[in-house]
Amino acid sequence: MTLAARLSLGCIADDYTGASDLANTLTRAGLRTVQTIGVPADDLALPEVDAVVVSLKSRSIEAGLAVSRSRAAEAWLRGRGAGHVLFKICSTFDSTDAGNIGPVMDALRADSGEAVVLVTPAFPETGRTVYQGNLFVGAVPLNESPLKDHPLNPMRDSNLVRVLARQSKTQIGLVDLATVTRGADAVRARLAELSGKGIGAAVIDAVFDRDLETIGLVAAGHRLSVGASGIGLGLARALVSTGEVKSTTASSAAGAPVGGSAACLAGSCSQATLQQIAKAEAVMPVLHLDPDGIITGAGEAQRALEWAKPRVVDGPVLIASSSASDQVAALQARHGRDAVGLAIEHAMADIAEGLVQAGVKRLVVAGGETSGAVVDRLKIPGFLVGVEIAAGVPVLRAVGAEKGDMLLALKSGNFGGAEFFTDALGLMR
Ligand SMILES: Nc1ncnc2c1ncn2[C@@H]1O[C@H](COP(=O)(O)OP(=O)(O)OP(=O)(O)O)[C@@H](O)[C@H]1O
Ligand SMILES: O=C(O)[C@@H](O)C(=O)CO
């Protein structure tokens, strides 16, 4: 692997769509960025880069495993000279009280010797803002947003100081918007004050990109931060403005067409994805899987492939497991939350594998866990970032994949406009 003399920024993302969202943001801000799936093998050929985003599938797994995988990624990134590591979490802070943001942050903090860690999931471009430590999704607090019914990580408390305090061993402080507005020195002074009180992490408010630029300038002087693409934007702009990184125009990594057939898979049950599926019905054949059938092992994946194979020859198709929140809850009550999630992810991976064997080379996947299951099954080791389809979702070109050249789009559940599937396919040639 070829890297810049010293990696300027190392990132660990807790899911694959989140990783491509961050890689997209860093690329657009001028950093040469690559997304790897897990810690890359030494023989993976990659271009020279300023930033590496190591994608993990650690958001909804047991906390101890999330910690050990994140620490291995951190060791790899530090070994390549990364002075700053960003732990990329979801902009809707997806994690239950037994969740992994706190434990991973604590472990990385101990490894990096960081006194106080800046934490913010703000990503104003997608409507995620933080005020007085409360996360807003568009106009409503997190606990009133559709995230309250997330299949794996229902979010019922919008106060992130409280949420993180329930997960972390350190005390959690707040850097409020008034302080951020006063600039980088005011933020540094507040952090020194918190650190003097033995507080090890601080949720920091951000409403506009300019707040994230201030935060980025401060964070760049630290070893570790935790947040979503917004703090990535701030860090990238700080690295460019201080001359640490020479800005590069976003590459056309998705450049040469790959041809082949195209398909979309949706495992996300977010309202955005449900609306996108409904829109897709008008323009491509859509198959709705029977989630109960998947769990009871009734050959749903095989049935889906038999349906899809003759159709993909003529044009893109969409296969979706997604259901509305009341049906998700009913299914989980019958079979258990984890069993349902895993069985459907497994079926989606089976379908993706079958589709690729049938000649699909352009694949759009909706949902972070779903994308993780699919990309793992296809054994794709990394991605170069191409054009942006929607905020937080780029076209990705697989590198080092056994199946050869492929384009993918990994859509975070809540991202993209109503026509997302057609928008994506229009840019994936
Ligand atoms: N009909 C369904 N009923 C219950 N669970 C489902 C159903 N369809 C999919 N799932 C499961 O719900 C989970 C959806 O998570 P996923 O991360 O893929 O989407 P998301 O949370 O909307 O996206 P993101 O994490 O990017 O925000 C997966 O574990 C998936 O297997
Ligand atoms: O930050 C986000 O919202 C996304 O990148 C994501 O992580 C969803 O899985």
Automatic annotation (TrEMBL):
Its lineage opens with: Bacteria, Pseudomonadati, Pseudomonadota, Alphaproteobacteria, Hyphomicrobiales
All copies of the Four-carbon acid sugar kinase nucleotide binding domain together span: 264-421
Chain coiled-coil ranges: none
Keyword Nucleotide-binding present in the record's keywords: the answer is yes
The record's Gene3D superfamilies line, in alphabetical order, gives: Four-carbon acid sugar kinase, nucleotide binding domain, Putative sugar-binding, N-terminal domain
Give start and end of each Four-carbon acid sugar kinase N-terminal domain. 9-233
Q: Tell me what organism the protein belongs to.
A: Bradyrhizobium hipponense
Keyword ATP-binding set for record: yes
Task: Write down what this protein is called.
Answer: 3-oxo-tetronate kinase
Enzyme Commission number(s) of this protein: 2.7.1.217
Q: Which top EC class applies here? A: transferase
